[in-house]
Amino acid sequence: MTKGWENLDGNGHYWSGQPGQMPPGYGPSPTDPLVSVDFSGWFGRGTALVRQVWKPALLLHAAVAVPIFALSVPAQSNLMREQEAVMETQRLLPDRTPPLGDLMLAVGLVFAVALAVCVLYLVATSATVQLTVQAATGRPISLGAAVRTGLRRAPALLGWALLSVPIALVAALLCVLPIFYVIAVLAVLPVVVTVERGEGIARCFQLFHTDLGVSVSRIATVYGITIGAGLSLGVLSIAISALTGPTVGAIVDAVLNALVTVAFGVAGTVFLVTAYADMRARREPFSTAHLTNV
Q1: CB 2 within 8 A of CB 188
Q2: What is the mean pLDDT of residues 282-289?
Q3: Range among 72-76, 118-122, 253-257 with highest mean pLDDT value
Q4: Which residues have a Cβ under 8 Å from the Cβ of 124 and sit 6 or more positions away?
Q5: Which residues pair with 6 in a beta bridge?
Q6: Which residues have CB under 8 Å from 7's CB, separation 6+?
Q7: What pLDDT is attached to residue 27?
Q8: pLDDT-derived band of residue 204, with 50, 70 and 90 as boundaries?
Q9: pTM attached to this predicted model
Q10: What is the 3-state secondary structure (H, E, C) of the chain?
């Protein structure tokens, strides 16, 4: 360790009292599996790591997608039926207030399912982060060990995720740009919570603002590709729903959403890990070796 630099967090992560300053002569190795000096290096590292972990990551996210699909489709279909029933009652009896009890129960069921889906997705995302760390640090890739890590980090992940909801709501109320900003900042939250004990939302803001060019370019690329794919499949879903009816449309929509979610969970998470590494390396001395014991 360079003289004058202190171990501040107990995890072997070193930095000075001046965030963003590197010790003299410090720099990650050009062959570091995670940290890159430019966009091309970041994309190449992400692609290489996707090739290493895609099989266990795909198995994991496909397995998670099954219960998510089994829970989401009935809940959404039930909500749509109750909405149609209320609208039909209003049409036939415009002077009477339709009974809303069943509709409220359907809404509550959707929220309960959404929470369960959130937990499953967070566990899978954390496990994929761990798979990426295993590959980057040269350890044997173990899906079982990765899932155990995801389960251990699930309470912290859920807590930080729920805490981020009011932040996102405030940003959404302010304008379009603030919500995009908050989404971009919190993109690496699952990575931060998985590899840095006790860190969360504040850490994401610190990392994001150290080098905005690096942060924005990486995060915008990951989400830009994801949003483009989602919009394309959304148009297809609307067309199918118009031709087949709302029930079949809900099933098709759930399947297409599951495909996007699985693809993002497998590839997008890996690229977010490499984005996190680049962001962190701009703030403090950091290399892949710091994650050996994660």
Answers
A1: no
A2: 85
A3: 118-122
A4: 60, 61, 64, 150, 265
A5: 15
A6: 1, 13, 14
A7: 55
A8: very high
A9: 0.81
A10: CCCCCEECCCCCCEECCCCCCCCCCCCCCCCCCCCCCCHHHHHHHHHHHHHHHHHHHHHHHHHHHHHHHHHHHHHHHHHHHHHHHHHHHHHHCCCCCCCCHHHHHHHHHHHHHHHHHHHHHHHHHHHHHHHHHHHHCCCCCCHHHHHHHHHHHHHHHHHHHHHHHHHHHHHHHHCHHHHHHHHHHHHHHHHHHHHCCCCCHHHHHHHHHHCHHHHHHHHHHHHHHHHHHHHHHHHHHHHHHHHHCHHHHHHHHHHHHHHHHHHHHHHHHHHHHHHHHHHHHHHCCCCHHHHCCC
Residue 274 has pLDDT above 90, yes or no: yes
Q: Residues, the chain, total? A: 294
Could you tell me if 80 and 39 are in contact, meaning their C-beta atoms sit under 8 angstroms apart? Answer: no
pLDDT digits (tens, 9 = 90+) for 208-230: 999 999 999 999 999 999 888 87
The C-alpha atoms of residue 118 and residue 131 are separated, in whole angstroms, by: 20
Q: Which of 28-37, 96-105, 216-225 has the highest mean pLDDT?
A: 216-225
CA torsion angle 202 203 206 209 (round to 10): -90
Query: Per the structure block, which two tokens stand in for 249?
Result: 């449309």
CB 35 within 8 A of CB 207: no
